[in-house]
């Protein structure tokens, strides 16, 4: 190695060291500021907003003093044990498929949990006092809507995708029209359509609350997108797989369930997880209809003029909660799809040693 | 495999199991099959050859209705098959099919590939299906690969698994569509050997192939197709030594030339 190269090497090493220390310094500073604001100088519990004004840090008291509003929205306070139990049930149903990652386990536990949770919210199923959907709200409602929307939109999306790939022209065009007409409209206008226009046609159902209409809109909207994701997955399955399955005499359902779908799922699993995470966030659109989902309920904490200034704290808490929910969905998605991993051919795998030799070979040239 | 290899011992030929009458098939305006007449007896071994695009694949794919024909009649073991036939699954499970590109199920192990259809379609118990599968994997000389995934096998091994998968359904007829065309030359014979053994066992076989050595050794009849028609049907000895039509001669000239080289 020549002297010039030597000097160059030392200089780049030195400058990269400098950059590293500057970077770490900035990061440490940011963390320190956040800690100071969020923990050290913050006020967690107080009844009077004046204490907050005196402190230089965050005022978490805006949440803690109004936790009922933030967590449960407009749900009657005397009954909040019901949405609390519902939340526990919904979370439990979420954890079961994490332990035992299988689609049937997930579908069953979620369906059961949804019935119980809705029954608790509503009350009549368990002989409790009736609480109108109009009064439901808060974090439990967001969880309920998210799980319901995911549970319904995936099978519908799958059915539409299969229809679009089917040999029957009528079925195929019907699915096409459905997908294009739903996908071509913003979610918000679909929400208004489902809650304002649809009830006019369904006047027979006097108890048809806008919450159900809105949930239907979210399900259909996402089902349209999911069907396209599934279709993309179905298109990756080679025609020979269909030939082989048919030639063995497999029935249509078995061919799809055992041969085609597992391969299609594997191809589109990352995009499906994307969609599931999107659904959780889509539920916050219900605020435009005056439904008190978690986001909207949390904002109730700011109605009181004395707390109005603390919107940053409220949005930080809301944001972190959504982040946790979405991360949980994404972990679940990964758990489920990791079972579909393609078996690797032994000599296909790039070992760390091989990778290192490629990299060094590249840098030497 | 040389052409002088001893031919498979003479065997029983029974009643008619496949009957094609004036079968026509077109894609749009393009006629792929132009009035095919063919009758195959139980236990017969038929080799179909012909230039690319002559309709060989289409012909055998019509037999199990992977393609639907538009005119004429196809009768499989007494049942007339046609597009939209409700019981087509029942016919298909009696007809094994081996493809040029193997078409193994990549997400299932070799054993699962072999047991899937027997358990799902025939309602055989898992244990019984596995026992059968292992016996048949032994017959195609790969019992040790049962737990592997298709992608971990060589082409020749994959094609033998594909044959085993079909055999596990104990079909009455086996269709082969250029089973060795996608294989490296050194793997061709291991697949052909399995097919010869299958022929010796008395299976009714329709084989699309250009392996003329295999044809002369195994076939009861060789069928030459061109432009959607059956041009010549003959016993292999006559087919190779005294072809009747000009088109057959020309084709044989090309094929034998390339296979010798
Ligand atoms: N799905 C299809 N749509 C339109 N044309 C098709 C289709 N499948 C096959 N064909 C045409 O039908 C003709 C016969 O095809 P086929 O696959 O039966 O020929 P082949 O004799 O098997 O040829 P090869 O030796 O190349 O496999 C070809 O000209 C082909 O282009
Ligand atoms: Mg072909």
UniProtKB/TrEMBL annotation, chain A:
Belongs to the binding-protein-dependent transport system permease family. HisMQ subfamily. CDD domains: TM_PBP2. One of its GO terms (biological process) is amino acid transport. GO terms for molecular function: transmembrane transporter activity. It is found in: Cell inner membrane; Cell membrane. Keywords: Cell membrane, Membrane, Transmembrane, Transmembrane helix, Transport. InterPro entries: AA_ABC_transptr_permease_3TM (IPR010065), ArtM/GltK/GlnP/TcyL/YhdX-like (IPR043429), MetI-like (IPR000515), MetI-like_sf (IPR035906). This is Amino acid ABC transporter permease. Gene3D superfamilies: MetI-like. The chain crosses the membrane at residues 21-39, 80-96, 103-121, 141-163, 184-205, 211-230, 314-333. It is a multi-pass membrane protein. One of its GO terms (cellular component) is ATP-binding cassette (ABC) transporter complex. It comes from Bradyrhizobium rifense. Pfam families: BPD_transp_1. Residues 139-333 form the ABC transmembrane type-1 domain.
